[in-house]
Amino acid sequence: MKKIGVLTTHPIQYQAPMHKKLDDMYDLDVYFAHNESKQEKKKSAFGVEFEWPKEILEGYSYSYLKNISKNKSVNTFFGCNTPEIIKKIKENKYDAFIVHGWYTLSYWQAILACNYYHIPIMVRTDSTLNEFRPHIVKLLKKIFYRLLINRFDAFLAVGIKNKEYLIYYGADTERVFFSPHFVDATYFTPKNIDNVGRIKVIRLLFVGSLIDRKRPLDIVYAASKLKNQDIDLEINYVGSGNLTDKIVQEAKACQVQVNMIGFLNQNELIKEYMSNDIFILPSQEESWGLVVNEAMMAGIPVITTIGVGCAADLIVEGVTGELYNPGDINQLARKINKISSNLNDYKQEDILKHIETYSVDNCIVGISEAVNVLSNNFK
């Protein structure tokens, strides 16, 4: 049995099913660079103190590395400093090693250790070229990343835009393996849709941090433009952030019905997806947007922007949802009206069929293909 190592910054709900599947197939060691406290989770992203369900640490072998950073964080380069990983890589002589990016010092410690000890190293990240950066930053990144890419032996692309990103920076197409982003199917079960004779209240859902980059207020403004249409809209916001109060204020001023549900853990989200009609992710930019996977796993159509990384993979207009340009309120209003007026055209079976490709099983297929190729190359 091949021995595989994985390094990630901290336990992440979306990675757990992948770790469990890999543990069934390989002699697996998962390393976490940092153990976030409730307070750190609140500060880093979600705005509230919480704990992930214990299930995300079950079914595979893992350990926390000693993080010697003075300012511990999973969001900054020097926030994860774990020189211990160098010793782990040297001692275990892995057949392959996976890092989930290169944005922390811990990842670099693992990358360079694998290079030094001739351990095949793979990277799985979800960056895209959609991300806005000043021209000088783009130029410097192009120079630096082309050198960085040579450090890896294989690339695990989560989707179309991510593959384009990797190839743009110099990845050999023959070393890029499709390992799609997914959500745990055990959490998300499709609802039965029956729109015949239903009342004309269309429930719009947003899930995520209520911050400027995700543009949650755009849904309120778009809904206000549809007040004269023969349709009643209700917006449900799941999440927290600095725009919470402003959303309530603007909704009141626009006479739009909103419900501020607050933060929900993954195992609590099912009922929200199942009780809404359209999911909207209006982000200016997003590396992927796994909430779109979640919504589609529940069988509901999605409206999102072309700035969201998963759009090229998951949105088939007129079938699984609709696309629009970030910040274009009028266009968003038209898309809401289009789906609301034709809900039966966005068939649940078509949505579920399309999202089937983006599964943990296909994620593992890509990783296994990469491991097999690397095993042959490193003999």
What's this, in brief?
By secondary structure, this protein is α/β, with parallel strands linked by helices. Helices cover about 35% and strands about 15% of the residues.
Number of domains: 2
Number of strands: 13
Mean pLDDT, as a whole number?
91
Q: How many angstroms does the end-to-end distance come to?
A: 15 Å
Categorize the overall geometry: elongated
Beta-strand content estimate: 15-25%
Proportion in helices: 25-40%
At the fold tier of CATH, the topology name of the largest domain is Rossmann fold
Q: Number of DSSP helices? A: 14
Question: What order do the SSEs take from the amino end to the carboxyl end, as H and E?
Answer: EHEHEHEHEHEHEEHEHEHEHEHEHHH
Decide which structural class fits the backbone: alpha/beta
- Enumerate the spans where pLDDT stays under 50 for 5 or more consecutive residues: 193-198
CATH superfamily of the largest domain: Glycogen Phosphorylase B
Strand arrangement across the biggest beta sheet: 3-2-1-4-5-6-7
Gyration radius, rounded: 22 Å
Question: Biggest sheet, in brief?
Answer: 7 strands, parallel
What is the CATH class designation of the largest domain?
Answer: Alpha Beta
Describe this structure as you would to a colleague.
The chain has about 375 residues and is an alpha/beta fold. The protein has 2 domains: about 5-180 and about 360-375, Rossmann fold (3-Layer(aba) Sandwich), CATH 3.40.50; about 200-355, Glycogen Phosphorylase B (Rossmann fold), CATH 3.40.50. About 35% of the residues lie in helices and about 15% in strands. It is built from 14 helices and 13 strands. Strand 9, helix 8 and strand 10 (about 255-260) form a beta-alpha-beta unit. Helix 1 (about 15-25) crosses helix 14 (about 360-375), helix 3 (about 85-90) packs parallel to helix 4 and helix 7 (about 215-225) packs parallel to helix 8. The two termini are about 15 Å apart.
